[in-house]
Amino acid sequence: MSLASPVAATLLKNQLNVRPSTLRETAMPETVASTKILATDEAYWSTIRDQFPITRELIYMNNGTMGPSPREVTERVTKRIEHVDSTGDYGGDYEGIRKAIGSVIGANGDEIAYTHNVSEAISIVASGVELKAGDEVILTDQEHAGNAVPWLARAKRDGIVVKFVTLAPDDATILDRVSDLITSRTRVIAVPHVTCTTGQVLPIKAISKLAHAKNIWVMADGAHPPGMMQTNVKDLGVDAYASCGHKWLCGPKGIGFLYIKPGFMDHVIPTWCGAESDKYWGYDGKLDFLPTASRYDFATQNFALYDGLQAAIEFMSKIGFDKIEARIKHLTSYMRAELTRAAGDKFHYLTPATSVTGLTTIKLANMKCGDFWETMVSKYKIRTRVVHESNLDANRLSLHIYSSMSDVDQFIEAIKSVLA
């Protein structure tokens, strides 16, 4: 059963019988940005949890798919919508928000294009990059459809060749396998920074160095790192980086962004464009695109969502992205240790031990992933994610700053009961 299907959605709604959460009216503490805050300070992180309206009748362990927003993000979006509807003023500080996004990933504001999601950002590159029949693009064997389909569509349309590298648990083997696939026709390597399947962190910096030595462009599917782990696209060396606001940044749903290196822009022709993409157009037939990444976004946009993303970035910045990463690693390490102690040989990890992020994927010895998902939802009110990609038949667990040690403990007790 596809867990994106109407049947699964109805099952989830009926089994959870979720009612709106009743929150304690607890404001963000004045010490929220204190350097003294530790990943183990449960009182502090409980206060952060209070900022999220996600129901307390559910233990939510699927942030890798959708990150609930804190109240102040939703309030910012609502206020902007009300402002637009009452005044007709639908614009806003687009360039300021580009700078805010850039600050999260170590980029300049004029290197950021607005998109609606990661898939759209990837499609800008996959559709527009200069390629001809026979040119090769390297992906991995653990792609989200959002990275695979745009490149396969380009292959279908223009006759490029898509090749898939088989991932390995260690960086050295991955680099060797990527190197082995490179030929004189290889033009692009487009791979996840963190895989959606297992949460493995790929050696993007080393891949970029390898590729650029052979004049190959590199694009990273960065759906997961921003808001989960500190990320600097300049240090990674990528030519393009696609991400979104609705996962680990806990921003509004339906907003994404694309970082694209200035030197790469002239090789990625906008295929969807319009008002605001151009520096000049005229009835003389001339068209000049903007010299910045703004050339890839155009026309009327819902600025309320961008305003909400800025609110999300401000919220996360108050806490500190380094504190957020430390908290996520603390929760994940604790969960993995307790899982190993509780479940023994009844499951194994698909996530390499070296990749300690908010994502952990396990494969049960004697239970299908769909059955495990349904049992956890219906009996224990815990929501995880199935991993059907690459025929893994596994389950992915996501922990974020609204997660607690108590949530982890309840999950451990639930899985012990299920595996027993």
Structure notes:
This protein is α/β, with parallel strands linked by helices and 420 residues long. Helices cover 40% and strands 15% of the residues. The chain has 14 helices and 15 strands. The strands form 4 sheets. The chain has a 7-stranded mixed beta sheet with strand order 2-8-7-6-5-3-4, sandwiched between helices. A 4-stranded antiparallel beta sheet has the order 11-12-15-14, covered by helices on one side. It is globular, with a radius of gyration of 22 Å.
Short summary of the structure?
40% of the residues lie in helices and 15% in strands. With 420 residues, the chain is an alpha/beta fold.
In total, how many beta strands?
15
User: How many helices does DSSP assign?
Assistant: 14
Please give the largest β-sheet.
7 strands, mixed
Strand proportion, as a percent range, falls in: 15-25%
Task: Write the element-wise H/E pattern from the N-terminal end onward.
Answer: HHEHHEHEHEHEHEHEEHEEHHEEHEEEH
Q: Give the CA-based shape.
A: globular
Determine the fraction of residues in helical runs and give it as a percent range: 40-55%
Distance between the termini: 24 Å
Radius of gyration: 22 Å
What oligomeric assembly is this protein in? single chain
Poorly predicted ranges: 1-16, 18-26
The computed structural class is: alpha/beta
The pLDDT mean sits at 92
Strand order, main sheet: write it out. Answer: 2-8-7-6-5-3-4
